[in-house]
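Re: the 323-residue chain
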Amino acid sequence: MLSVIIPAYNVEKYIKRCINSVLSQDLKNIEIIVIDDGSKDKTSDICLEISKNNKNIIYKKAQNSGCSAARNLGISMAKGKYIAFLDSDDWVDLDMYINMVEEAEKNQADIVICGFKKLDENKNLLSTVKIPKRNTKDEYIDCTTEWFSSPCNKIYKRDLLEKNDIKFLLNIYTGEDMFFNFICFFYSKNIISLDEPYYNYFMNQNSVSNNYKNRTDIYIVIRELIFFYKRNGAYEENINKIRECFKYHGIMYPFDVLQKLSENKVKNWKRFYRKIKEEIDKLKEIDKLKEIETIDIKIYYYYRIFRLKMMWLKRFKKMLIEK
């Protein structure tokens, strides 16, 4: 009935909790596919030990190729009517999958979405993300929300992915999830949401210095999204979605990261700033991108640059005062 795909890489501390949360599900007809993406710690040993005692676990060791490649391999191996994705440091509530599958069956849905909880290392609740009901499929395609991009708070009909050859972009480490969902939502006929936060998302509180290195991959994703809509003759009707994606993911989020890097004095952050500007200039070379870069987006872009430069001036002023 359901195939749960878990990519795993060096997660010896969390993988048992993750897999056990699926083994304990109220829904019993579950195929668990663990793709070990070349782990170098004890992840492999833990997965092999658990799989020995559970026939519904399929364990596959692969060469390290990234999360997207692991998920794509899992999709090719899946046999369930529905497919779910679970990150190896996260876990799910006991009734998540039975409720989502029942909702999919009842409404003949291609995609079912649920809310999620954000928790820290000690399982302290940081925040809860819920999903208000939307009236149309188009209203669910909203990349400005927290619940849209991740594939982990959703289940997908396997036929939807196979018939349309939907896969995760390879060698992309920011925005590949969002692109996957843009494509899935485009081809789907019926999308349903459940307001309950069944998914538990572990928030890694590591330094921001670990979060910016692949942030410029988002501009590759935006280019691929433009090309996808053009190939399918759906560019004009989806231009506002591309504008939202460019504004929120191509400007707001990267500049938020820049601001944190600057505040934390992370080495080479100015190089990242130049890289962002270069990638945005490349986007401008694409035919019809001028239609995307509205006055509103231009104003917002230059406002963020101004705001960043004001931070530099404040720091310079503080240095002068201290002297």
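Residues 206-210 have pLDDT under 50 and may be disordered.
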